[in-house]
Every structure is written in structure tokens, then in C-alpha cells.
Design brief:
- It is built from no helices and 26 strands.
- By secondary structure, it is mostly beta strands.
- The chain has a single domain, classed as UDP N-Acetylglucosamine Acyltransferase, domain 1.
- The strands form 5 sheets. The protein has a 9-stranded mixed β-sheet, with no helix packed on it. The protein has a 6-stranded parallel β-sheet with strand order 3-6-9-12-15-18, with no helix packed on it.
- The radius of gyration is 18 Å and the shape is globular.
């Protein structure tokens, strides 16, 4: 039998069948349930739980103490900070089974989620958005948005490189002071300028 080309710490449990990409590392005390798909070069920190059927893209970093429940999908290059929280039912009750009410939560490519942030189920976090530590996100987030607070609200825009965008002299233009990438803005939509 061929040795896997990913790493699972002996204290972790990976139920089969599931798919784990090469170069992925699953650290101490994790539990990955069956029918999970994890891409290449991911890192699951200590005490991460991944529920049945969850999809995780490639190069995803999930820090300690994160539970990713059924209905959550993380695209490539997502960062989940320590103890961030995902949900999958809006009105849970212990005595009422609501598995048929699980809502999909989509976290698009390149998103960063800060420590202890909470994401309500049934929303989409746009690509390269940045969710600040402790934010409580109750609704969809546009691409590149910087979200903070409770309830979460936008206070600006973030570059693909992870730095805050500044307004350019031209109306509806944004630029990064670090990598000099430029963006166009129309209302609450920001788009990366093509080279």
C-alpha cells in the first residue's frame, strides 16, 4: 500500500473515505470526518474539527481551535485565524433536529478571517476580503472589503497582498502603498485592475 504524501499527527483522527492533497499537514488532536475534501499544501492547527462533506481548497491555513461544519466551503488560499467560528443553522435548538436546514457558507479565494471572528451561516465572503479579529459577520461581504466590529461593517478595502488600500487622486480609484497594485471602485464593488 502506498504511503500518503500528507502528514497526520498520531493524536489526530481522519475518517475514511476522504481526500487529502499532497503536502497537507494535520496537527495535534484534529478530527477530519468522512467525505471531506482537502486540497494540497494545507495546514490544520491543533484541535481543528472538519465535519462530513466539507470542502477545503489548496494552500488553506486553519489555525488552532477552529470547527468547520457541514455546509462550509473554503476556496484556495483562505486563512482562518485561531478560534474563529463557523455556524450552519440560524436558529438551533437542542431538542429539534434541523440537519435539513443547514445553510451553505462560501469563503472565496484569498480571504483572511481574524482570531475569534464569527461568521453567520448562509453568507458568502468575497475574494480577498479581510475579516478583523472578533468581528461578527451577519451578511455577505464584498470582494476586498475590510470588515470589523459587531455587527460586522466595512471600514475600507484590502489589497491582494494584505495591506489596506488608499484612495487615489482619481475618483473611484484605489491603490496599495506596498505593492502599488491599483483597483477600480464602483459603489460597494472593488475590482483589481488588469495589467
Amino acid at each position: 500500500m502506498k504511503e500518503p504524501d500528507y502528514f497526520v499527527h498520531p493524536s489526530s483522527v481522519v475518517d475514511q473515505p476522504c481526500s487529502i492533497g499532497s503536502g497537507t499537514k494535520i496537527w495535534h488532536f484534529c478530527h477530519v470526518m468522512e467525505d471531506v475534501r482537502i486540497g494540497t499544501n494545507c495546514s490544520l492547527g491543533q484541535n481543528v474539527f472538519v465535519a462530513q462533506g466539507v470542502i477545503i481548497g489548496s494552500n488553506v491555513k486553519i489555525q488552532n481551535n477552529v470547527s468547520i461544519y457541514n455546509g462550509v466551503e473554503l476556496e484556495d488560499n483562505v486563512f482562518c485565524g485561531p478560534s474563529c467560528v463557523f455556524t450552519n443553522v440560524k436558529n438551533p435548538r437542542s431538542e429539534i433536529v434541523r440537519r435539513h436546514e443547514y445553510l451553505r457558507t462560501l469563503v472565496r479565494r484569498g480571504v483572511s478571517i481574524g482570531a475569534n471572528a464569527t461568521l453567520m451561516c448562509g453568507i458568502t465572503i468575497g475574494q480577498y476580503a479581510f475579516i478583523g479579529a472578533g468581528a461578527v459577520v451577519l451578511k455577505d461581504v464584498p470582494d476586498f472589503a475590510l470588515i470589523v466590529g459587531n455587527p460586522g461593517h466595512s471600514i475600507g478595502w484590502m489589497c491582494v497582498c494584505g495591506h489596506r488600500l488608499r484612495s487615489n487622486e482619481e475618483e473611484n480609484r484605489l491603490a496599495c502603498s506596498q505593492c502599488e497594485q491599483t483597483y477600480s471602485r464602483e459603489g460597494d464593488k472593488v475590482a483589481l485592475d488588469q495589467a
